[in-house]
Each structure stands twice: as structure tokens, then as C-alpha cells.
Amino acid sequence: MTKAATITGYVVKVQKGGIETCNCHATNPAKMDTHIDIVADPKYAVPRFVKMTCHGKTIQKDTKEKYYMIVEVTPRVRGQQRAKGVDWSSVTLKKQLTHHWVRFSGWLLFDDQHVREAENTNPGNKCNWRATCTEIHPIFGIKVVNPPSRFANARNSIKARRLRLSLKHAVADDSSG
């Protein structure tokens, strides 16, 4: 695909990518992609592990992975950002993005190496670990943003509940003295 795209998602995890043909089978982490798993709803970020057999191996698998879309930072773009004084290393992105809403921009890519592992191309396969083979790869823009409005009330209600609990404890502490 030769189309630019922007997507906003909730970041589940950030990790060093695997050995891939697009990086000439590099094994040095500095020359490997950073994979960022995002979901449309934070409820899919809470893992649910089950024991199952995938590709002949018994594993503990997160059944929520089938909701993930993958976006990727390439070593070349990471280097361009470094030249601008911006740290897009896997370690830094993990600290800054995990469990936040983030807007990503870059190029759409259909990663045909994963057609047997995605819900859109192999629906219902218990070993699927992604929603779609379509990725944003590489990413050129990353921005932490506020949650979409449909999640604002949930966020506010959690904050309100925490405030009520802290006030309740403060009153209890105050009345004892």
C-alpha cells in the first residue's frame, strides 16, 4: 500500500520487534523495529491468559491479542528522530506510551507474513495474535492525546471514585484525632 494514515489507539505494549526480512534479519536491537500494540478500547488491554497449543507448542496465550493492531517504528526513522534530538528507542517509547491514548501517523503496510495469524485473514484461529495484517509501518508521527470522548466519562468516573475514597479516608483519619 502506498497510502499515509493516522490512527488513534490505546497502547497495550511496546516491545522490540523480532528478526524480520524488512531489516535484513538483523539481530542487533538497534537495527530492529519497535512494535507497538494498540487497541480501540482499553478493555482489550487487560490480558486474559489461557493454556493452549499453537504451532505444536503449549503456551500461555493472551486471548485479547486478536484485538491488537500493530504500528512500528523502524531503525531508520528512529535514527532520523535521534538526529533531531528525539529519543524513539523501544525503552523510551515503552515508558512514554504504554497505557496511554496515542495518535500515530505513517504509511499503511499490509504485512503478508502474518496472514495466518490475523483475525481479518484467518478468522477464528485460536493462535491469532493480531486483529489485522494492515499496519502503520513505518510511523513518522507519535503524539500522546486525550482519550476519545466515549471514554472520557469512564475516566472521570474512575477519578471521581478515587477522590471519594481519598476523601472518605481523610474524614475517617480526621475524626479519629
Order of strands across the biggest sheet? Answer: 5-2-1-6-7
By oligomeric state, this entry counts as single chain
Strand content: 25-35%
pLDDT < 50 runs, ≥5 residues: 156-166, 168-177
What Rg is obtained from the alpha carbons, in whole angstroms? 20 Å
Taking the sheet with the most strands, its summary is: 5 strands, antiparallel
Number of helices: 3
| Mass-distribution shape | globular
How many extended strands?
7
Structure explained in plain terms:
The protein folds into two domains: 4-145; 147-177. The termini are far apart. A five-stranded antiparallel sheet has the order 5-2-1-6-7. It is of the alpha+beta class. 25% of the residues lie in helices and 32% in strands. Residues 156-166 and 168-177 have low confidence and may be disordered. The chain has helices at 75-83, 90-97, 149-175; strands spanning 4-16, 34-39, 49-54, 57-62, 69-73, 101-110, 134-144. It is globular. It has three helices and seven strands.
